[in-house]
Amino acid sequence: MKYRSADILEGEGSGFYRSLFKAMGYTDHELDGRPLVGIANSWNTLVPGHVNLNRIAEFVKKGIYAGGGTAVEFGVPAACDGIAQGHRGMNYILPSREIICNAVEIMAEAHKLDALVMLASCDKSVPAMLMAAARLDLPAIIVHGGPMMGGIEFDGRKSDLTSIDEARGMYKSGGITRAELLSLENTACPGCGSCSFLGTANTMCCITEAVGLSLPGEALVPAVYAERMRYAFDSGLAVCRLAKEGIGARKILSREALRNGIKLAMAICGSTNAVLHLSAVVNEAELEMNVVEEFAALNKTVPQLVRVNPAAKWDMEAFHQAGGIPRVMLNLGDILDTSVITCTGKTAGENLASYVWQYPENREIIKKREAPFSSTGGIAVLHGNLAPNTAISKPGAIDPALHRFTGKARVFNSEEEAESAILGGGIKAGDVVVIRYEGPKGGPGMREMFKAMKYLYGMGLNKSTALITDGRFSGTNNGCFAGHISPEAAEGGPLAIVEDGDEIFIDVIDGILRLNVPEDEISRRRKNWPKPFKPVPRGYLRLYARAASSADRGAVIDFRMLNTATGFVE
Questions:
Q1: Which of 86, 48, 125, 81 is closest to 453 using CA atoms?
Q2: Which candidate in 474, 486, 549, 550 is catalytic?
Q3: pTM score above 0.90
Q4: Which percentage of the chain shows pLDDT scores above 90?
Q5: Does residue 447 share a domain with residue 316?
Q6: What domain range is 69 assigned to?
């Protein structure tokens, strides 16, 4: 097998390049005829889900050397959604996905890497790594840092980061004391790992396993388990096999495999952000596949087999011990295409046939296909005059009494305005909170409306109100909601002309999001739409605001969105 690194490490002119490697201590043994395997490490001490990745990287290196490869490590950025919540930092979170993907591409191409092991755990880093794998088409495998353990029991379940915002609303409404609120600060997040609920981070880790780009059973092993290190070692071994056999990432990230990922997201009732991120992955893989349409079609045929936090009390450790993603895939049966190749070099079906179960089955968490929690999937696509290009909701985490909701609009032009009104007692039962100008362009960056939903919960309004937005939601949100509304308000979408008091109808089962206002009145408002002034952002956000596609297309940077004056047109 001739590796592409041979272009710089073999032959007459190789001494120039080999000298630079030797300046770092590499030996002839490491540079002669072995695959050069890059470890894209998003370790930092700002993100709890990534703070353990340096230790995991050491075990990956051991696996790479045991597999006959040479490990070369580089860092890539990763930001914490939690720390960025509720302020300007959230504007950067979704756009960071593109930066991470670009950083991996730059390092892999500049240094002629033969294969990649990509270390990531959190919301935008995992989809960014999937995007990079699809773009580069090198032999690749993703290793996660693992989920956090659950915290002290609060409100009927193990606490997590979101419990603190829920508790703040309870404190504001007199439901708990300040001492109880402060105690959660020390007990809700007991250690490192991606947050202990099925948010975007853990959803994307699960999808990565389902599409075959991480090892079977790897996604949900908690961060503090020794088993996590063994998976890291085995991943280093596996990527060397992929390199020797010439299996690039696009052989794994096929249309059928990505459809398996969509089905898995439906079955586990994962984060609505999965729609956004899988659209971006498909874009990088250059596949003719409309992810939103796939979600809409598969919602009716894929049952919901899993209920964990936020849909139930169970955390990620319990989900792992119940059998995790292998158990879900096994129970889905022929709904999945198990003939697809995976990072083990075997098919998904072969992986399942040889999988060794560590813990007993728990049918309170993972149901059999014959007796599901719901006959339809946990994620829904909505249409209607408020969402001509679709919106996304999550019926699997919504109380059935709220699957259909009619209410009066309370309109806010930013997340901060809405949160102030909620905490100030300005929202009442029967209201539909409308948060607009928070889409990919309007935000810019399509911020999460996580805190607004949690404040409604804490104020006791989660079962009597709804929230709709052109922004996003965290995977831990519940209550009646619809996000990703496209086209967004900043592009003149119908959300921009909603007024206080308008009647809004939401149906997350039949997929409807409708403004109950006469068409002639809607037309009149469109003609007189006063687009609000928003200062042009500086730096990277300026580019993102100009070039971001709509949410239904993945909110990716699309240079066709720029005009000729920029010099960036294709």
A1: 86
A2: 474
A3: yes
A4: 86
A5: no
A6: 34-149+191-354
